[in-house]
Amino acid sequence: MVSRIIRQIRNDRRTLGLMIVAPMLATLVYAVMFTETVTDVPTALCVDDIPWELKIGDAIVEQLEQSENVTVFRRDQTTAFDGLGTSIHAVLLIPMNLTECLLTAKDTVLELFVNVTTTPHANFIRSLIANASVDAVTESLGRTGLKIDPHITVRSPSPPVSGDLSFNLSLVNADIGLPISIGDMIQDLLSRDNNVSLVSYSSLQEVIQSVENRECVVGIYIPADFTKILFINGTSKLEVFVNAIEPSEVSTALSSVRTALGDALRLSLDRGTDLQLTYIYGTAGMSMIELAGPSVIGFLALFFGFIISGVFFLRERQQGTLERLRASPLTDIEVVFGYTIAFIVVSLVQTTIICMVIVYFSSTILTTIWLLVPLVLLLVIGSVTLAMAASYRMKTELQVIQMIPLFIIPQIFLCGIFFPISLLPSYLVFLPYLFPLTYYVMAVKSVTFFGGTIFDIIVPLIVLALYSILGIVAAIAGRSKK
């Protein structure tokens, strides 16, 4: 009987072609779709951020020049100490990286050299310069963090009877400042990111309009004071407008924006930290075909096994073949097992084709293929025999096809291949466990990704075995009734 059915399928070239081409085409489309990543997401960007040309050194100089007690002489490194102790009472050296260190929270020091006659005069100079410097930093950044390293020389320990505490200050301002726009840095980083296709706009309204008109999936607006506020108190925010109807593209675009923002902050502020990721299971950058491929093998085997065996068995019944077999010495059990073995052979051929296509894109399943075979076999046996049992009650092939939305499609959404079962509300959480594909997916994930052995998948194996037995019993019972 098995050889007769196989010869019959082999002679029907159209059916044979569909049996081979259909699973190959379905798997190929799936593999291509899920091995590719979302790129070139249309993203609108408007940067109003103004470069913050800040020099803390200039602010300190300006603060000192406004004091009535100081006469400032701007000098360079070579002439800074000329006249110290005679015409010059103090020298203040402002380093070239002062602004950068203050903005990036690094240690920085102003060097102050004082050479006067008395200690009170020296203390007055040090106090005035320290207060002026701190005031300048506070006005510029809203915080302090400046240190002064004093070098004081006093020629006489006795205080003056009276005198003027004014002094001459030689000042070297080498601070080069930090003219920067973090918004421009973000734009530059995004323009070099292949995941987004950046479109620049000149106003916030144009950005919003581009998302409303579906020209862009994500819109980004960087306000004019973004850099300044970010440097001062760290609370500046990007405004992002999202078309949430396209979640995959939005996720890709937002990931690129977060990466660009983090890189810009590291480059400009020298802040931020890198995550130290340790992958317990899986590896970085796993594609959907690698994650879902082994599970999809079971789904496609169930789908094609159920449909092909159901339609073929219905045709056998309509053509009177099953009735003629009653005149043969074969029992009902032998008839059912004959059809079952033949359909299993066909399903395994299809499954092999599906596996070859998936392995071409991802070889993850090769190491666990010996555990996948019995799982697929049990799933196919149950699906083929249940299709045969259902065919006894069907009158047309269309009625068999109508079993797809009732039995097959719900499983793809509920079994956990693409969507976690935890997404279901609590009162429906039992639903996935009514379908065999859920247990197949549980077992496949265990052996493929978590290093499970046959002992770790005993429960799914038992359920799939019961599913197969249920299908066989239902097929024999249906045959006996007919």
Provide keyphrases for this structure.
single chain, 482 residues, alpha/beta, abc type-2 transporter like fold, 3 domains, 5-stranded mixed beta sheet, 4-stranded mixed beta sheet, 17 helices, 11 strands, rod-shaped
How is this structure best described in words?
The protein has 482 residues and is of the alpha/beta class. The chain has three domains: 2-36 and 287-481, no CATH class; 41-52 and 181-269, abc type-2 transporter like fold; 56-176, abc type-2 transporter like fold (3-Layer(aba) Sandwich). Helix content is 55%, strand content 12%. The protein has 17 helices and eleven strands. The chain has helices spanning 2-11, 13-35, 56-65, 98-103, 119-141, 182-191, 204-212, 226-232, 247-269, 288-318, 321-325, 332-361, 369-391, 397-401, 403-414, 436-449, 458-481; strands spanning 41-47, 52-54, 70-74, 90-94, 109-116, 147-154, 167-173, 178-180, 196-200, 218-222, 239-242. It has a five-stranded mixed β-sheet with strand order 3-7-4-5-6, covered by helices on one side. Strand 5 (109-116), helix 5 and strand 6 form a beta-alpha-beta unit. Helix 10 (288-318) packs antiparallel against helix 16 (436-449), helix 13 (369-391) runs parallel beside helix 17 (458-481) and helix 16 (436-449) runs antiparallel to helix 17 (458-481). It is rod-shaped. The two termini are 19 Å apart. The relative contact order is 0.12.
